[in-house]
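Let us practice reading a record.
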Amino acid sequence: MSLKKRLFNNGLAYILQKGVRVLEQLFLVPFFISAWGAAYYGEWLTLTIIPSVIAFSDLGFGTSAANSFVLSYAAGDKKKAADINKTGMYIITIMVLIAIFISVVTIFSLNYFNVFDKSLINSDDAIIAVSVLITAYLLNFYNQLIESYFRAAQKAALSINLLTIKASANLGVGLFVLLLDYGVVAFAFSQLAVAVIFNGCYWILGKQALGLFKTHRGQKDKYILRDITRKGLGYLMFPAWQAIYFQGTTFAVRIILGPEAVAVFNTVRTLSRSVNQLLNIVSSSIFPELQYEIGEGNIEKAQKIYRFSIVSSFIIAFIGVIFLAIFGLWFYEIWTHNELHVPQLMWYIFVLGILFHAFWWSSEPVFRAKNEPYKFAVAGISSASLSVLLTFIFSKYFGLTGAAMGALALDVMMAIIIMPLSATMLNLKLKDILSHAFSDMQQLYVNVKSKFKLS
């Protein structure tokens, strides 16, 4: 299958996955409220904080092992790839055991201090449901590494579609449980059943797609273990900048301008960042192919994929900026029922941020593709911290418009740092990207036009 077709298939698969995830987040809500009541459902959401936090504990190590695996396999070093898989499975299992220990201590402590007794949900039911849900989440720890089998086999779209099927299954069994008026324990077991069945099938299909494990068993390697651990800690820093930025700027606005300003600030940011969901589809679509070409040593193809990401992201962002600049405030007033007043300049500053965001977000996959997380993580944490500080200062002198300026600072700084850095990692200069921009845009137009003709 050609590179263009793989990119196209990845994009379609991610669009479908986004749609199912939106349904997963929104569709069941009225059924939860109808079956359990708003207060009981609110208690359940509170309880799910525990397994949700536990789920983040493997984010770095699974990603590190998966990226190392793909790069080694694409480079032709299948023995090392098999060793990385064996070592990766080992460290993920260690993380599962640590997570189990933390979960047991957490649940025991909460029960000891009678926290569950204060809930609307029966304490025994709450403990069982949370324990079962944690088990389901822990089984997902292996999915990052298994997903890399599909990437290495250049069948990323198949993996995405399989994960979409899993999300659909979670949605279906959850709806079934709620329609039968079952409680939290049955709901948790339904999610565990999907995790057990899906993850087993996912692992089998991944191994079949690649075929590596028919000839290579792999061995645990202490040097590989050290490398996965080191880079895993780097990937654990990825969510840190988001926590600093989103929670920090919100806190700054609350302290300086008050709770009503927080409502305006966060709703404006949410609506203005809606275009970023489309940018996520682009970056997610190009990542598997970019990583494989880098691993295989096809630097020219990797550069072309990178430029495609930059150009297509800019086009989407530019159209989004124009649309939101013209219709955004009108839609915002309808969305919020005219309850919140937004300074026009504040709105336009947030909208402008989309362009800067497009440049650095489309460059971010390079760091994951080359398995070099620390450069991005340090830039992200530094920019987020400075953005929070500027939000404090500007909010004091310019109100909500100043808060928007502080928030914009993150995207400006990241665009200045990340885009040139990612280009250098691919042996490109910014002038090379600009010189190819027109031809890349023309090629993109021809490809899209031919796809529509075929359909």
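A brief commentary: Residues 1-6+13-220 form one domain.
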